[in-house]
Design brief:
alpha+beta
Length: 95
């Protein structure tokens, strides 16, 4: 299926801001949606191994997952899903 330029950009360009803690500072790195998904998944798997007393909002991995899942990464996932539905609808109605 052909993807729209916007959808290709989301998949191929580092267009998703992902925030992380560097000491006391919040910093940003730009990733493709696939890279962002892999990194958030890996951090989640790391957190799964924590003891309950290690799960604190001040932990950098907890911040990473929570902050990104509810902000720009979430919006990029929604956008990707909406673009996919739009492109699929256009493809099925044009033939």
């Amino acid at each position: 299926m052909d993807l729209s330029p916007e959808h290709q950009r989301l998949r191929n360009e580092e267009s998703v801001p992902i925030f992380y803690m560097n000491g006391p500072n919040k910093e940003v790195m730009w990733l493709t949606i696939g890279e962002a998904t892999r990194k958030i998944t890996q951090k989640s798997l790391d957190i799964e191994k924590f003891n309950l007393h290690q799960i604190k909002m001040s932990h950098p991995d907890i911040f990473y997952v929570q902050y990104n899942l509810f902000n720009d990464y979430y919006m990029a996932l929604r956008n990707s899903s909406e673009l996919f539905v739009k492109e699929l609808t256009q493809r099925t109605t044009s033939k």
